[in-house]
Amino acid sequence: MPRRSSGRVTLQDIAERVGVSKVTVSRCLREPQRVSETVRLRIEEAIEVLNYIPNRQAGALSSGRSLSVALLVPSISNSVFSEVQRGVDEGLREAGYQVLMGHTGYSILEEERLIDTFLAYGVDGFVLSSTRHTDYAHRLLNRARLPVVETMELTDNPLDINVGLDQRAAGRAIGEALIAAGYRRIGFCGARLDYRVQQRLAGWEDALKAAGLSTQRCQTTPRPSSYRLGGELLSAMLERWPDMDAVFCCNDDLAAGALFECQRRRLDVPGQLALAGFNGLDITDATWPTLTTVITPRRAIGEQAARLLVERLQGAPCDPSCHDMGFEIALRQST
Amino acid sequence: MPRRSSGRVTLQDIAERVGVSKVTVSRCLREPQRVSETVRLRIEEAIEVLNYIPNRQAGALSSGRSLSVALLVPSISNSVFSEVQRGVDEGLREAGYQVLMGHTGYSILEEERLIDTFLAYGVDGFVLSSTRHTDYAHRLLNRARLPVVETMELTDNPLDINVGLDQRAAGRAIGEALIAAGYRRIGFCGARLDYRVQQRLAGWEDALKAAGLSTQRCQTTPRPSSYRLGGELLSAMLERWPDMDAVFCCNDDLAAGALFECQRRRLDVPGQLALAGFNGLDITDATWPTLTTVITPRRAIGEQAARLLVERLQGAPCDPSCHDMGFEIALRQST
DNA sequence: TGCCGCAATGTTAGCGGTAACGTTTTCGGA
DNA sequence: TCCGAAAACGTTACCGCTAACATTGCGGCA
């Protein structure tokens, strides 16, 4: 009993219509210059007429390359990663790769699960948005011998390629900027507390300690970040440390939420309290007052990740490397 | 010359180690109860030890089902769609499907390209976030005979399943709410002007006309929506219609941007100008004053889409249907 | 004329799974 | 003890495409 053919148009159908073998059709699609002009035109016509859509699964199975790459981000709703995604997507699409996206919900266990899933899908490479993974994820990636880019933060010990920025230095820089602006009782407010946030916190502490200032005004929570949470955290901080004159929020969402809370309390920003955020999202440049923040080169990180990944995919040898994409302090009205 | 095997562990490797045929191993993975206890345990052990990861491409090629579904959204950075995505993802994952996401950048041509791409990947179904497609996309979808869910807005003529809300009715409702609150010189400000925004605009006009009010205070642009744009549009409107007493912004980003612009101009909201947005994003409940908006059931739309899609994937017949998920007006401080 | 080399195309043998059907084993009941 | 059906497992033939090698045809040159 012959297996039911899916009914889809296949290479064979094209080949029969044109009167060549299916290898020639396949070749025509992959290396057009290796097929004669006349045959090529007739094949192209047949593809058009029959509405042929190549079956990537079959192609991937046969060639061992799927021309797809997995991009794992912590959260889709967080606009921080949408810029990275755009950069990655653009760079990889140019090179003929399709990006398959997954979101880990900030969980390395979920990341592990997704790595497994995408390996099953036969992706040719990974772009991860962290340098922290489970042991099993490490083993999976090592065994698969695929190019991997770890993005966002830097690490001393990259799996393969690492593109990001020094989160701790950025935290320190914004701390120093606040100190330079004359603030002395500077608070830190952080949510989610993933590795990157911890680094920013450490940088903030570095700056304050170096200036001989107290680092006690630190309010953190494992809850996910949101505008409202920014307001709640700020309220709690104002209660505990009424003398606080500036707050560095670990991200822009919290900073904006804190700003709204100040408005609600008729607290003048920056007159009575200065605010600073992190990432440089659109909103920081739209609020009143505009928000001081650390602008992170998310788009550039994505593009660079794509560029390096493509090099590896096209044969460059595996040579672990780190790429510091820097950051920029944007001093705005809120400080 | 034998073809270079990818080096990956395959069913065959498991089978050899256990001393059974690979069909038995395959069966053990798909229908465990059809394999004897002892063999099953030994197979499971071998899978564990050898770190076997099934090759989905091969499975899909052979069975004709890939257990994956494409979800196409206009924009990843727009949080409106991340809620839909979450709903879809959750519902489909439960049923064993993997969601592959693509973003169209609000272009139906790009949507067409993505449909083509994902058909090549052999997805088993589509979730689209519009009811507007190119002719070619229509043909592709019809020919593929796959279940398709069109989401967000409603249509009289669904391709297959349609889950969304009546955008025009929602626009009318917010218009009526503003009128009921006593506003009479109500403006509309819109960006991007995709189909949904046009519907909201039409609804707003319906409400104003029904109340005998002027619909001239309408400022639109094809530019993509953003906070800053909200401010710019509001400025332009205040210049043209200084007597305006309320503005319905086609989405929350514009409304928030407009609010920030009011703060910049020291214009009291709602005292001097009332503002309303659309979608019910987090920010509307965080700003000061909080923003009146239309809360759209995005999560529910995603979940319902997933539910209906799974039914179809599991054999329910194709029977075009529309599902109105409704909306809710949230009157807040800004009106 | 005969031989060489290259361009254009074809043949073969898989890639790693699964559907369909075939065979063997097991076991209860007549 | 023997029979027959179900449970357990195996064989075969693909799914649609491509790598590697084989073949054909033709022009150019000695």
UniProtKB/TrEMBL annotation, chains A, B:
GO molecular function, one term: DNA binding
Membrane spanning residue stretches: none
Keywords annotated in UniProt: DNA-binding, Transcription, Transcription regulation
InterPro entries the UniProt entry points to: HTH_LacI (IPR000843), LacI/GalR-like_sensor (IPR046335), Lambda_DNA-bd_dom_sf (IPR010982), Peripla_BP_I (IPR028082)
Residue span, HTH lacI-type domain: 9-63
Protein name as it appears in the record: LacI family DNA-binding transcriptional regulator
Origin species: Chromohalobacter sarecensis
Classification lineage: Bacteria, Pseudomonadati, Pseudomonadota, Gammaproteobacteria, Oceanospirillales
